[in-house]
Amino acid sequence: MNDQDRPARPRVGVVGLGAMGLGMARSLRNAGYDVGVHDLRPDVAETFARDGGTAFATAGDLAAAVDVLLSVVVNAAQVESVLFGADGAADRLREGAVFVMCSTVDPAWSAQLEGRLAEKGVLYLDAPISGGAARAAVGELTMMTSGSTAAYAVADPVLEAMSSTVYRLGERAGLGSKVKIVNQLLAGVHIAAAAEAMALGIKAGVPAEALYEVITHSAGNSWMFENRMAHVLAGDYTPLSAVDIFVKDLGLVLDSARPERFPLPLAATAHQMFLQASASGLGAEDDSAVIKIFPGVDLPKPVEG
C-alpha cells in the first residue's frame, strides 16, 4: 500500500472486546472512526455494532477491510490464533497495513513477531496498554509502544484517539513490552502489598473504612491501594483485572529476568500470592481478591440492595 492508496483516516479494526478492547473500540467510535470489530462471542461484537461500526465473523475478514488492526486479547497464544489460526489475520492484511499488539507478552516473542509479519509485508507495533477499563472507555490509555517509523506513520492517529499518552520507546519491537513487564512487576507487587496491609489492619481490629481513609491520605498510599482496596471495601470482586492475569503477568516478569540471572524477590513473592489465590478458586475474581488468602480476616461484605 503506497501513500496515494492510503485513506486520509485509516480504517481501523479491533479484535477482542473484553473490558479493555471494548472501551478502546468505543473511544475510537467516539472519535469518528467507523470501527470494525471481531470477538469470539459474536453477540458482543454485534451489540457494539448496533451503535455504530461493523461486526465481522472472523479476524481474517476484519483484517481484509482495515489499515490498522488492533489486537486486544489476553496473551501471546491468543495473538497467535488471531494472526495465524483458522481464518486468521496475517494472510488477509494488506501490504503496508499495521498490526498493533496490545497484550502483555514476552518481549522476545514480540520482537520475533515483527519479523514474521514483515515477511508478509505487514507493519507491526509492539503496543502494550495501561490504564484500566475506565480510561480505555474515555480514550485516556497509556500506550508503551515501539516499532518502525513507517508503522507509526499509518497508526499514529488511531493511537492518539485512544490514549492520553503514547510513549514511542524505539524503532524495533520489544521495547514496549519490556517497559510493560516492568510496569506489571510494580502493579502486581503493589496489589499484593496493598492486600497484605489491608488484611493486617482488619485482623488487628481497625475498621476497614477508617484504615482506607487514613492510608489513602498518608505516605504509604499507592494508586493500587486506593483503587483496589476500594473493591475490598465494597465487597465487590467483579473482575476488572482478574487474579489469573497477574499469575500470567508476574510469571512473564520472572521468565524475562531468568536469562539475565536477575533476582526478583518481591515479584516472586507476589506471584506466589496470586498463585495461591488462583489455586483456591479465585482465579476469575478481581485481582484484589488476593486479599482472601489471609486467614481469619473478616472482610467487608457487599452492600445488599
Automatic annotation (TrEMBL):
Gene3D superfamilies: N-(1-d-carboxylethyl)-l-norvaline Dehydrogenase, domain 2, NAD(P)-binding Rossmann-like Domain. Its EC number is 1.1.1.411. Catalyzes oxidation of L-threonate to 2-oxo-tetronate. Can use either NAD(+) or NADP(+) as cosubstrate, with a preference for NAD(+). Residues 11-170 form the 6-phosphogluconate dehydrogenase NADP-binding domain. Residues 174-293 form the 3-hydroxyisobutyrate dehydrogenase-like NAD-binding domain. Pfam families: NAD_binding_11, NAD_binding_2. It catalyses: L-threonate + NAD(+) = 2-dehydro-L-erythronate + NADH + H(+). Belongs to the HIBADH-related family. L-threonate dehydrogenase subfamily. NCBIfam families: ThreonDh. This is L-threonate dehydrogenase. The active site is at 180. It comes from the Bacteria. It is an enzyme of class 1 (oxidoreductase). One of its GO terms (biological process) is organic acid catabolic process. Keywords: Carbohydrate metabolism, NAD, NADP, Oxidoreductase. GO terms for molecular function: NAD binding; NADP binding; oxidoreductase activity, acting on the CH-OH group of donors, NAD or NADP as acceptor.
